[in-house]
Amino acid sequence: MRYSYGKRAATLAVLGALVATFATTSSAGAGPSAAERARAEHNRIVSFWTPARVAKAVPRDFVYDPTSRTFKPAAAATSSTTTGTSWLGGGEALDATGKVLFAMGTSYYVCSASVADDTVSGRSIILTAAHCAYDEAKKAFATNWIFVPRYDAAPARLTASGSFCASTALGCWTASSLVVHQGYADAGGFTTQATTHDFAFAVVGAGGKSGTAQLDATVGGHPINFNSVANGADAYLFGYPSSGKYKGNDLVYCRGPLSTDPYNAGLTYRVGCNMTGGSSGGPWLTPFSSGSGTLMSVNSYVYSGVTAMHGPKLNAKTQALFTAATTATTNTIVG
């Protein structure tokens, strides 16, 4: 009996050692954690945006051409006048509004965006235009999407070498998820349907120069109003226009009474403004005071020869996107 017990004990000891060895081997051979994968992807996107690629990025904005009766890239239109003015007031208007860079296919683009308030830990949510996140014609999400807050506090110098993000004031945050509405994804082009759904959210994790900073904890954010705003409201529009007289390194704003687009059956907003390409996705804020306000639209499109910016009405569909963004882990289309 003692021999049998000893043999059994020895057998169990061997099995225990094998189990321990297997557990150690399995742990050592396991893949990277979710946090490690997110950090690696962030670093990859930051490295992607070399000064050479940033220099090639062009606005992805749209202007209505009355001759063809279609929206065309804003670069096709020129203007010698503007109601845009450099923003010198500081506050969250400066801190939480940023420059956006992204790729679509082999082309590189610039837009604008702003940080929205949220109650979710471990992520921050950014509001921008849908056409700055999704290619409505080719039905594909943007790639290598980055957000650079407080850009004009220290605009990156585009030298042949060095890190673009490291030379900005706060660094860059990279999107882990982009969220758009089915109404935009199905538009097939920048149509009336697209203009009424031209809002999107980008989800970002830790970033900045340290790679560990949370965006909203660093720059703050704006609350969002998902209801229509009445005509006549005093609205402030912000963005980083980068064509015409603008060079993309200055936060510009327009201010004026809110109205609706008479050529779009009043389905979208209008404010007197002539910011140029690169301002798309920048925030509309009302009420606004002391550098902070409530998000209620984004820069979307202009008409040739009309000194006004237009933006979508945020609504229940926008709120559904925001809700999806609080948990999204991949690019998402919300129907």
How would you explain this protein's 3D organization?
There is one protein chain. This protein is an alpha+beta fold and 335 residues long. The protein has two domains: 2-30; 38-334, Trypsin-like serine proteases (Thrombin, subunit H). Helices cover 23% and strands 30% of the residues. It has eight helices and 21 strands. The strands form five sheets. The protein has a six-stranded antiparallel beta barrel with strand order 5-6-7-12-11-10. The chain has a five-stranded antiparallel β-sheet with strand order 4-14-13-17-18. The model is unreliable at 1-27 and 75-82 (pLDDT under 50).
What's the CATH architecture of the largest domain?
Beta Barrel
CATH superfamily of the largest domain: Trypsin-like serine proteases
Q: Would you give the CATH topology of the largest domain?
A: Thrombin, subunit H
Number of E strands: 21
Keywords:
disordered N terminus; alpha+beta; globular; 335 residues
Task: Describe, in short, the structure shown.
This protein is an alpha+beta fold and 335 residues long. It has helices at 2-29, 34-48, 51-56, 91-95, 182-185, 192-196, 215-219, 316-325, and strands at 58-59, 62-65, 70-73, 85-86, 97-104, 107-116, 124-128, 134-135, 140-141, 143-149, 173-181, 200-204, 234-239, 252-257, 259-260, 268-271, 283-289, 292-298, 301-303, 309-312, 332-334.
